[in-house]
Amino acid sequence: MILIIIIILIIIYLIYTKICTNYFSNIKNPFKIDIVYTWAGENNDQNDIREAYNNELKYSLRSVFKNVSWVNHIYIVINTPIEDNIPSWFNDKYNDKITLVDQKEIFPKEKHDLLPCKVADIIETYIHLIPGLSEHFIFLNDDFFINKPLKFDNFFSSNKKIIINKDNLNFINMNKNKYDNRNYPFILKYKLYHQHVPYNMTISSRKEFINKYIEWIQFIRNQSYEKRTDMDSCSKHDLNSNCFQIHGPYFIYMYLNNKAIIDINYNENYITGDFLNIYKLRFNFFNNSNFFVLNNIESKYKTDIQILLEEKFNNKLYFEK
């Protein structure tokens, strides 16, 4: 009897998911919303669990096409040279929906000799300069996955304000030196990192924010292109950590300027790729979270994780070989 009930519940869930997917895929947004990824390519250090490539981008794209198919266009900023880093599993049909962007297209010419830039914090200060990018866009890392069908107003309000999470209500000044008159933004209080959620942005507000704090932005842009600067070094500059990430201070700026709305349900679902979290990942396929992040996959669990992702996102895309 219990088995029959379980089977019925699974069938109901599958039917509901199918209905939701069909409904949301036919919704027309009141304004264009693009998606931006930054991607280092497939040739990273496989011994480094932070950098190793585990087909995250493929399954992240499947999650986007499955659950937010209403997006206008997808841009993937790829390490220079772009011809060496095109996804090996792409065929030639991707470019009707996806544009691959070489870092040279958004970095200033005087920085081209330093490329490729392997530091996400630096790259993020330039993504609003992508040619053709719509005013409203969602920034994703390749290990972000959309877990269920969502509408545009899960990311932007009807009056075009961005949706952010409640962490942004708690902030302090980045600058710890009260005698330093340089202009610094606010930063999250009690937290070193902003939550791993899709980052909703607008081009115009990014320009405003960067212009307002241009001295700090240049400080980020002048860090090493090879390796992320240790956030412990923030204290050497009398700054609170993490002084190198732009999205946290940007969201606080948006909130303080009445350009953002707090959603208490806009939270991360962060899963590490170790033994215990393989089971957590399977559970998360059927819970109510809007999205999840899968990070730091231990090499011995790589196959298990990919099997689970294939089960969840088995909708092979038309531009996959």
Describe it:
- The chain is of the alpha/beta class and 321 residues long.
- The chain has one domain: Spore Coat Polysaccharide Biosynthesis Protein SpsA, Chain A.
- The protein is built from 8 helices and 12 strands.
- The protein has helices spanning 2-25, 56-67, 120-124, 203-212, 214-221, 247-256, 275-284, 302-312; strands at 33-39, 74-78, 98-102, 136-141, 144-146, 162-164, 171-173, 186-188, 199-202, 260-262, 270-272, 291-295.
- The strands form 4 sheets. The chain has a 5-stranded mixed sheet. A 3-stranded mixed sheet has the order 5-12-11. A two-stranded parallel sheet has the order 6-10.
- α2 links the parallel β1 (33-39) and β2 (74-78).
- The termini are far apart.
- The mean pLDDT is 85.
What secondary-structure arrangement, pairings included, does this model have?
Layout: H1 2-25, E1 33-39, H2 56-67, E2 74-78, E3 98-102, H3 120-124, E4 136-141, E5 144-146, E6 162-164, E7 171-173, E8 186-188, E9 199-202, H4 203-212, H5 214-221, H6 247-256, E10 260-262, E11 270-272, H7 275-284, E12 291-295, H8 302-312
Parallel strand pairs: 1-2, 1-4, 2-3, 6-10, 11-12
Antiparallel strand pairs: 4-9, 5-12, 7-8
Brief rundown of the structure:
With 321 residues, the protein is an alpha/beta fold. It has one domain (2-312): Alpha-Beta Complex (Spore Coat Polysaccharide Biosynthesis Protein SpsA, Chain A), CATH 3.90.550.10. The chain has helices at 2-25, 56-67, 120-124, 203-212, 214-221, 247-256, 275-284, 302-312, and strands spanning 33-39, 74-78, 98-102, 136-141, 144-146, 162-164, 171-173, 186-188, 199-202, 260-262, 270-272, 291-295.
